[in-house]
Amino acid sequence: MVPNIKIALDDLTVNNIGVLRRINSVVLPTSYSDSWYKDSLVVGELAKLAYFNDIPVGAIRCSLETPPNHKDQTRIYIMTLAVLSPYRGYGIGRKLVDHILEQAKKMFVKEVYCHVWVENEDALNWYQHIGFEKGDLVTGYYKKMTPAGDAYILRKKLE
C-alpha cells in the first residue's frame, strides 16, 4: 500500500532562497553566484520549489530569453532543475517541468530548452521520456568543471 503523497510547488522568497541554494549544491555539478540567487527572486513563476509531504526536495529556475533582434522566437531556458535523489521517481521533476510548460503557454512561448551534461545519462533519458528532443552537442559548455564538460541541448517545442 502506497502512503498518501503530497507534492506541492511554492514560490521562491527571501525566506526560502537558501533552500534553492542547498538543493542545487547537493544535486548539481556546478555552483551559482549570490547574484544568480538574488535574480532568482524576481523571475516570478519561472522559479519554484517542490515539496514532498512538506519537505523541500526539488527546485527549478528558468529564464525568459527574448532575442534582441526580435526575429527569433522568445524561449524559456531551464537553467537548473534539481530533485534530491531519494525523491526521484515520484513525479516531482515532471511536476516542476509541467509548471514551466504551462507558464510558457500562458506567455505564448513556443520552445523550452536546457543543457544537459553528456555524462548524465539518467537526465538525458528522462528529458527525452517527457518529450524533449536531443539536439546539438556544445563542447566545453560546463567551463567550471575540470576538464570542461560537454552538454547536449534538449528542446521541447510547444504548439
Report on the architecture of this protein:
The protein is α+β, with helices and mostly antiparallel strands and 159 residues long. Helices cover 26% and strands 36% of the residues. It has helices at 17-27, 34-40, 92-106, 121-129, and strands spanning 7-11, 47-52, 55-65, 75-83, 111-117, 133-142, 149-157. The protein has a seven-stranded mixed β-sheet. The protein is globular, with a radius of gyration of 16 Å.
Radius of gyration: 16 Å
The share of residues in extended strands comes to 35-45%
**Structural class, from helix and strand content?**
alpha+beta
Oligomerization state: single chain
- What is the residue-averaged pLDDT? 93
Overall outline: globular
Helix content: 25-40%
The description of the largest β-sheet is: 7 strands, mixed
Q: What is the tally of beta strands? A: 7
User: Can you list the strand order of the major beta sheet?
Assistant: 1-2-3-4-5-7-6
pLDDT below 50 for ≥5 consecutive residues: which ranges? none
Count up the helices.
4
What is the N-to-C order of secondary-structure elements (H for helix, E for strand)?
EHHEEEHEHEE
Distance between the termini: 39 Å
